[in-house]
Amino acid sequence: MLVQLLILPVGFGRVLPALADGQEEDLHFPRGDRLGHMVLLRVDAGPLVPRLRSELAALLTSLTDGDWAQPTSCPGWSVHDVAAHLLGVELGNVSVRRDRWRLGPGKGENLDTWLNRFNQQWVDAARRISPALLIELINVAGLRFEEYLATLDLDATGGPVPWATGSDPAPVWLDVAREYMERYVHQQQIRDATRRPPLGRPSPARSWRPRRTRCPARLTR
User: Fold this and answer.
1) Closest by Cα among 109, 113, 132, 134 to 123
2) Looking at domain 44-195+209-219, which of 3.30.70.270, 3.40.50.720, 1.20.120.450, 1.10.300.10 is its CATH number?
3) Closest CA to 7 of 31, 30, 40
């Protein structure tokens, strides 16, 4: 099972027991401009990230030239474009998180507008990368990100996860789960576009699965 994150909007926030260790903690998110208070199942998604990358490598290696050109649920983006975005996700995470190399909108610039343009510029440039090289680079950059994940204290307080906590800090485990879900969603978009089998179906009682139509600009927040 690849998805183990439960997110339910409620009137107050609480972290449910982790599946792995059964520990229960309380976590309260101030009501902000996103989802307000939510029930969150505390999970360690870190060990799932390498498995997801392995699934992605096998998927991309199996694609034909025609598959790479197939349109996806992200308007204007082909399978190659979504894969290139995934490479950008890995490179960006290593650069920003491990190496503290940050880029962002200018003063007064809307974040969503900047992010849309940033993602599109990367995808446009990456169209010159061959599928074979794209697969290699995703694996190398993904491995560097996984090495970084292994150094984190999941229960420490990290930066915000805007869709959940607005501008307020979030626990590191939630940030890691967010990164996992972005990779899951984009891989599923490629599977849908190329008519490949879906990733393992989660249990409805314990899991949450995002809508497949969500596209990169909103998932990189």
Assistant:
1) 134
2) 1.20.120.450
3) 40
Whole-angstrom distance, CA of residue 214 vs CA of residue 196: 19
Query: What token pair was written down for 6?
Result: 């439960």
Which residues, including other chains, have CB under 8 Å from residue 136's CB and lie 6 or more apart? none
- Output the tens digit of pLDDT for each of the chain's 221 residues: 344 344 433 322 333 333 334 344 444 444 444 444 556 778 899 999 999 999 999 999 999 999 999 999 999 999 999 999 999 999 999 999 999 998 888 888 898 899 999 999 999 999 999 999 999 999 999 999 999 999 999 999 888 887 777 788 889 999 999 999 999 999 999 999 999 999 975 433 333 343 333 465 544 44
- Domain boundaries of the chain, sorted by first residue: 44-195+209-219
